[in-house]
Amino acid sequence: MTSLRAVVEYNTFTSFGSGFxxxxxxxxxxxxxxxxxxxxxxxxxxxxxxxxxxGTALPLQCISIKLK
Length: 68
Hints:
The structure is a single chain. The chain has helices at 20-30, 38-52. It has two helices and no strands. The radius of gyration is 13 Å and the shape is globular. It has one domain (1-68): Aminohydrolase, N-terminal nucleophile (Ntn) domain (Glutamine Phosphoribosylpyrophosphate, subunit 1, domain 1). It is an all-alpha fold.
């Protein structure tokens, strides 16, 4: 849900914050690459958002959780 009360649903990934649209674009571009992990895609998406959105900044901290 965005600040303008728009509701957007994604089945594969999502993002929130001021640079969410840039991060989603980056994830969409990287998602089908076989050699990319979820963590790598998420990191690159945040880096893209930080580069083009003045409300997003680095450094970032990424925590991965191993699922059963």
